[in-house]
Design a protein that fits this description.
The complex is a heterodimer. Chain A is mainly α. Chain A has 13 helices and no strands. Chain A is globular and about 70 Å long. Classes of the chains: A mainly alpha, B alpha/beta.
Chain lengths: 297, 323
């Protein structure tokens, strides 16, 4: 059993034990879960009605479909380019959507003051924050699933259309594509949690700017770590170490290169990154709830 | 029927807004004490910026007081059981724009954990109460101001609240919409709801409220029933016809008459025993009496008087924003 799995199982046991042993926790949990679900549902329903998201999904699907019109040197090369391009599109659009969905999630409720009618009802502030986050995750999961399904459809279609050559065959690598998409969604989930945290203490514009910076830095964490190791000025070393420790390691979720180049990799490393990501997102959401609890709306 | 039980109690409530640019802060609410009894309709009136909405937001736990606090049904607002018993109509009806009335009410009712069956029944009742059955499928963003306000009131009523908090319920409505909303508030009052109302439309307040608190610059400068605040009539007003030319100074010469203007003769209330004598002088002058009244001061008069007494240097401009 990996340390990450131990952490998750331990966390689950602690929550269950506290819920069972502390009488005041039971009603709080039984109230919180349905309440979070209701907020999540209305978040999803509201997003479904907005044309912008639908337009973005259609755009991504068109991009994925248009990739079938390019010609390549060999069937193997063609499948490699389709997988690489498709997964990149899924990752980039997933991140961009997470920034724009996440950054508007809570600030929009505050600016349009729709939060007044909700928080004056029996809804705790942390239920509101977590509900909005869960709603955003559902939206992003559906969009990622649609994009992945289209990419798989394109790959399966090409597999039938492209004639294999003796020295080169078209390899759709469906399992790898699904795995890389799931990991891409994990990165999106972690980044969205960080965006929600920032949005509880700053404006929409600041949240969007911060989110782009965190995405960039989070995707370069191994470089940051190398720089920290080699930095000679103590203050710089400390700063880089703090950045490396505090910001999410989004590159751990990036399996595009391994999948598109048919490299051997351990699924276990993906699993470990996923568990770390869940732990990170939980901590970040707890902080977001604490900040939002003290915020004047 | 107004009971003895205190439903809402505010003690020493103070709110100071501070920022980087105003480190000293702006005092929005200043040591406010107020209580509302069960079944009572209480209105906080005052011009824009007097601290009314800030007070409501503190009561609802949306912002936090600098000092003092409020209790509802003897508990703090952070207690979820309190929020199950109150309803809030925010100013300018801020609800989700993309949903229609039916969907909005279903969502807000679901926050109280009501079953689907119960929600369906509630939606019917509430849409009927606020007169929105025919427009139930109209998205909120396409609703007129009056429809939006009525839907917002319906969402405040989904839990059949004991205490209803209304922030400027008629703000931005046309006369017909204002009349409809006032009728609705009166209906809720008839049903025994305790109502705390914030408004700067004094006519509506006069019509629906049992007690009024006048707020100015964050302070409660006067409080009581309208009758208490207004006091006794100070004048007798005689409306006449044919009062023109030389007739005016003839009537105005009477010792009890305070003034004659546009056919209206005003005399001091304390000299009411001389009414017949004044009426005779009007008759002798050749004018005809249409009506004799003893008007009580309106809430507008009370409001201006209250803040004048509070701040003697006050000029007319302070009544801006009060209609």
């Amino acid at each position: 059993m990996t340390p990450q799995l131990l952490f998750l199982v331990g966390l689950f046991i602690v929550i269950v034990a506290l819920t069972l042993t502390r009488k005041q926790w039971a009603p709080a949990v039984t109230h919180a879960l349905p309440s979070i679900w209701r907020i999540a549902k209305i978040t999803v329903a509201e997003a479904r009605r907005r044309r912008v998201l639908q337009a973005v999904v259609i755009l991504v699907v068109l991009i994925l479909l248009s990739m079938t019109f390019f010609s390549y040197l060999s069937p193997k090369e063609q499948s490699r380019m389709l997988i690489s391009g498709g997964l990149s599109a899924i990752t980039v659009f997933g991140i961009l959507l997470s920034i724009f969905v996440g950054a508007f999630l809570i600030p929009q409720e505050l600016e349009s003051r729709t939060v007044y009618a909700i928080l004056s009802k029996p809804v705790r502030r942390f239920e509101f924050v977590v509900g909005k986050y869960v709603g955003a995750l559902i939206i992003l999961a559906v969009i990622t699933a649609v994009m992945t399904a289209v990419l798989i459809g394109v790959l399966v279609l090409q597999d039938h259309l492209v004639p294999d050559l003796p020295e080169s065959v078209f390899d759709p690598n469906i399992g790898g594509v699904i795995f890389a998409s799931v990991m891409s969604f994990c990165a999106v989930a972690v980044l969205t949690a960080v965006i929600v945290l920032i949005s509880t203490i700053s404006s929409t514009t600041m949240t969007v700017i911060s989110a782009f910076i965190i995405w960039a830095v989070g995707s370069l964490q191994s470089t940051i770590n190398d720089l920290a190791q080699n930095a000679e000025v103590p203050a710089t070393k400390l700063l880089l170490k703090i950045i490396y420790t505090v910001l999410p390691k989004l590159e751990n979720f990036d399996f595009r290169n391994e999948v598109s180049n048919y490299l051997n990799f351990s699924y276990m490393s993906g699993w470990a990154a996923m568990v770390q990501g869940i732990g990170y997102a939980i901590v970040v959401l707890i902080l977001a709830s604490i900040f939002f609890n003290d915020r004047q709306v | 029927m107004i009971g003895d039980e205190i439903v809402l109690s505010i003690e020493g409530l103070t709110k100071v807004y501070r920022s980087l640019f105003t480190p000293v802060g702006v005092k929005a609410v200043d040591n406010l004490d107020l209580s509302v009894r069960r079944g009572e309709t209480y209105s906080i009136v005052g011009p824009n910026g007097s601290g009314k909405t800030t007070t409501l937001k503190i009561i609802l736990g949306l912002i936090f007081p600098t000092a003092g606090g409020a209790t509802i049904f003897g508990k703090g607002i952070s207690d979820l059981s309190v929020r199950e018993r109150i309803g809030f109509l925010p100013e300018d009806a801020y609800l989700y724009e993309v949903f229609n009335g039916e969907e909005l009410l279903d969502f807000y009712a679901s926050l109280f954990g009501f079953s689907r069956q119960r929600r369906k029944q509630l939606i019917e009742e509430l849409l009927t109460l606020v007169g929105m059955q025919a427009n139930r499928k109209v998205p909120f963003r396409e609703c007129s101001k009056g429809m939006r306000q009525r839907l917002a009131l319906a969402q405040a009523l989904v839990n059949d609240p004991e205490l209803l908090i209304l922030d400027e319920p008629t703000s931005g409505l046309d006369p017909a919409g204002r009349h409809q909303m006032t009728r609705l508030i009166l209906e809720l009052k008839r049903r025994g709801k305790t109502i705390l109302l914030c408004s700067h439309f004094l006519a509506e307040v006069e019509e629906v409220c049992d007690r009024v608190g006048i707020m100015y610059r964050g302070r409660l400068v006067a409080e009581g029933s309208l009758r208490d605040l207004a006091g006794e009539p100070t004048e007798i007003v005689i409306t006449t016809t044919g009062m023109e030319g030389a007739k005016v100074p003839q009537v105005a010469a009477h010792a009890a008459v305070l003034g004659v203007e546009d056919g209206v003769v005003r005399m001091g209330h304390e000299r009411g025993d001389e009414l017949w004598s004044v009426l005779e002088s009007i008759h002798r002058a050749g004018a005809h009496v249409l009506e004799v009244t003893r008007p009580r001061p309106t809430l507008q008069d009370v409001f201006v008087r209250a803040i004048r007494e509070d701040l003697p240097e006050l000029k007319e401009s302070v009544t801006e924003g009060v209609e």
